[in-house]
Design goal:
Blueprint lengths: L12 E5 L32 H13 L4 E5 L9 H9 L5 E6 L4 H11 L3 E5 L5 H8 L5 H13 L4 E7 L8 H8 L5 E6 L17 H11 L2 E4 L9 E5 L5 E5 L12 E4 L4 E3 L8 E2 L1 H4 L5 H13 L5 H4 L12 H4 L2
Parallel strand pairs: 1-2, 1-10, 2-3, 3-4, 4-5, 5-6, 6-9
Antiparallel strand pairs: 7-8, 8-9, 10-11, 11-12
Helix pairs in contact: 1-2, 1-9, 2-3, 3-5
Length: 333
């Protein structure tokens, strides 16, 4: 069954945050001056259990969802995550993916693939070790992320690499990353620095527009546009003219794509958010733990989506960017 919102957008993707914790302090997501040593993360009892996540996901699949993405925080910090992957893999022929900083992916990749994960997305903002360590702010080396990428590929998992580009920080890494992954079969997606949450000090001047990113790469490696593979595809895709693969750019700031957004987000404590830039969510955990039947959960999710009007990126102004939105570490990217 297909459910649509007020703008006719179907529900196709569910992003599931399994933890709000992360072992990085990336400057665009969990800056150290806010998420420091004494920051209070969610107590374990407030997190959805794997059984509860499976139950919610099953309802979403019944409403038309065809892609499930596990996020965080850092999802691989959630113990026995491969058990959740196995539960979700049994829900049907889904695109079951994971976004990770790859800090422990080399240890987990084989088990995740065996459990039924279909692909993995790795965050890697620079190949320059000094720049990367400055961005993750925990002195984590590039070499260990690359080891995780290799482990995923060896386990048979297709890999995408996400690069958040921030002016005067890592824009000089754009061409180097494109060069490194050309011909490897891995797709790189460059992401405009976004005003997610309220703690990253976002300014429009810090955004490197997607067009500038594409031009920088095309100057060394000619590109041509690729048609979207499906409605709601986030990245604008370009392939190398010489056949060495493709890149993507996610231009939420300069080229908003709200009109085709098919994504819902489930926070680690069971709040349903209908936009990455949401101010608040809808409590599904209360329904899950109330003893109500699945019909009640179905009605709640359907009602939230059918009333959805979100199009934040299309109406973004300096004023809206200052709203105290939910942090990305809480509902995933």
């Amino acid at each position: 069954m297909t459910v649509t919102d007020t703008l006719g957008r179907p529900l196709r993707d569910l992003r599931i945050s399994v933890t709000d914790r992360c072992n990085f302090r990336c400057v665009y997501c969990m800056p150290r001056d806010v998420f420091g040593r004494d920051y209070r993360f969610l107590p374990r009892r407030e997190l959805l259990t794997f059984e509860e996540i499976e139950r919610v996901a099953k309802i979403f699949v019944g409403l038309g969802v065809r892609k499930l993405r596990l996020t965080g925080g850092e999802p691989l910090l959630r113990r026995d995550l491969e058990d959740l992957v196995a539960r979700l893999a049994r829900l049907g022929a889904l695109d079951l993916t994971l976004t990770t900083n790859a800090s422990v992916l080399d240890e987990k990749a084989a088990a995740l693939a065996a459990a039924g994960l279909t692909r993995v997305t790795v965050s890697l903002d620079s190949l320059d070790d000094d720049v990367f360590r400055a961005m993750n702010d925990v002195d984590f080396p590039v070499s260990r992320v690359l080891a995780g990428i290799d482990a995923a590929a060896d386990a048979g998992l297709p890999v995408k690499i996400n690069v958040v580009v921030k002016r005067n920080l890592n824009e000089g890494s754009i061409v180097e990353i494109a060069r490194h992954f050309r011909g490897t079969g891995h797709t790189v997606r460059f992401i405009e620095y976004m005003d997610v949450g309220a703690t990253n000090g976002w300014r429009l001047d810090d955004v490197v527009p997607a067009a500038e990113i594409v031009d920088a790469i095309a100057a060394d490696f000619p590109l041509e546009p690729v048609e979207p593979a499906y409605r709601g595809e986030v990245a604008r895709r370009y392939r190398y003219v010489d056949g060495a693969g493709e890149i993507g750019v996610i231009a939420s700031v300069t080229q908003p794509f709200c009109g085709d957004c098919t994504r819902a987000r489930l926070s680690a404590d069971g709040k349903l958010h209908t936009c990455l830039f949401a101010v608040r969510g809808h409590d599904l955990r209360a329904i899950l733990r109330s003893g109500d039947a699945d019909d009640e959960l179905d009605r709640a999710i359907r009602s939230v989506w059918e009333r959805r009007t979100d199009r934040y990126s299309e109406i973004r102004t300096e004023e809206t960017s200052r709203l105290r939105k939910v942090e990305m570490s809480y509902i995933g990217g």
